[in-house]
Write a structure and sequence with these properties.
The protein is of the alpha/beta class. It is built from six helices and ten strands; from the N terminus they run βββαββαβαααβαβββ.
Length: 230
Amino acid sequence: MVTLKNISKSYGSKLNRIKVLDEINLIVNNGDFAVILGPSGSGKSTLLNVMSGLEHSDSGSIEYDGHDIAKYNESQLTRFRREYIGFIFQQYYLLPNMNVEKNIKMGADLINNKDYREIIRAVGLDDKKDKYPAELSGGEQQRVSIARALAKKPKVLYLDEPTGALDEKTGRLILDYISKLQDRQKFTVVMVTHNINIAEMANTVIKMNSGKIVDIYKNKVQKTAYEIGW
């Protein structure tokens, strides 16, 4: 369970301080598929970064099964992220001097996962495994970053606009694979997206505006990646 209590976050100098997160309180249960919606500038990505330990909050607590990572130092946070978190960014952050297989193996090596080649096949990259990032399309690079995050078998998978660079066919394939893998491995998913249709795949939908959570609701029925609109 991830529990946020009174989380606030601001950027800028004292004279030009902008509050991006304003007293956020949120509970995400183990095994949830949570989607965060909201207009640009509402604080969605910042919330994701703070929840996952990529950024520090200014105040409040962030508890994972009772352990408050808001109190962790950088060394503790690094270990926590390595052992607990998977993150799929809007940018791909691939190593240009490594081919597809080696980029994905980096994630697998963090937990000594020998089954990472199954993930390469599942995201449709088996015929690209010897290619380098510069030889791939944007959508293919995003699939590599997704496979790398999944290869470390995270307890919580954070996704920031994971289908933004993908065409509809590939986007549905990736979402379907993530959903089925979650069902099998029981990890938690927290996803930021502008595609409101993807929220129909979630069991928990979180709406944000101006740094605040303005609504949380549950879907009675979770649709598959091939049942939602696009």
